[in-house]
Amino acid sequence: MRSRRTSTRVLVAAASLAAVAAAILAVAASAQPGQRPNHPVKPFHLTKNCAHYFGGIGDYCTVTSSNLPALADGTIFYMQEAGATSLDSDTVIYAGSGNSATGHCSLDFTTGLGHCSIFGGTGTLEGLHASVDVSYISGNDWAWDGTYRFKN
Predict the structure, then answer these.
(1) Higher-scoring residue by pLDDT: 56, 148
(2) Checking phi first, is residue 32 left (phi over 0); if not, alpha (psi -120 to 50) or beta?
(3) If 0-12 CB within 10 Å is exposed, 13-18 middle and 19+ buried, where does residue 89 land?
(4) HSE-up (13 A, CA, CB side) for residue 33
(5) β-pair partners for 43
(6) Band of pLDDT at residue 44, cut at 50, 70 and 90
(7) pLDDT per residue as tens digits for the range 49-93
(8) Going by fewer Cβ within 10 Å, which terminus of the chain is more open, N or C?
(9) Reduced 3-state DSSP string for the chain
């Protein structure tokens, strides 16, 4: 009786390992070198007004124009506290209930230049990946220029 249970356990373990191996091979075959997933990179241009950002937690900037429909006028960007001459902050983009994305921005206030990376989100911003250069326009206005894609 004992050997029958042992045989059954060995067969179950072997079948489980075979199923796992088959799944790994299927994933590996679908991601062969040289193949790229169908996530086209597109140009990204956005301007935002930071009249409500004073360097404190809870302060924000508002989108005034964007070529990405999911980041319509009025979308809010929250940043953490800034220093006197620079910002090195996690960023949250809030585009309405259930629609947000996160990223990180670095900005030198003395040059007016910086960089932001966005790496994921929820709702209409789910899978958003963006890499943008930040530049000062005038007054409270800033530009983002770079690329974006939505990853499935």
Answers:
(1) 148
(2) beta
(3) buried
(4) 0
(5) 147
(6) very high
(7) 999 998 888 899 999 999 999 999 999 999 888 888 999 999 999
(8) N
(9) CHHHHHHHHHHHHHHHHHHHHHHHHHHHHHCCCCCCCCCCCEEEEEEEEEEECCCCCCCEEEEEEECCCCCCCCCEEEECCCCCCEEEEEEEEECCCCCEEEEEEEEECCCCEEEEEEEEEEHHHCCEEEEEEEEEEECCEEEEEEEEEECC
> Which residues are CB-neighbours of 116 under 8 A, at least 6 positions away?
91, 103, 104, 105, 106, 130, 131, 132, 134, 144
Q: Please tell me the predicted confidence (pLDDT) of residue 15.
A: 38
In sign, the C-alpha dihedral spanning 70, 71, 75, 81 is positive
**Structural domain boundaries in the chain:** 1-34, 42-150
Burial, 49: exposed, middle or buried (Cβ in 10 Å; 0-12, 13-18, 19+)? middle
For residue 90, the Cα-to-chain-centroid distance in whole angstroms is: 11
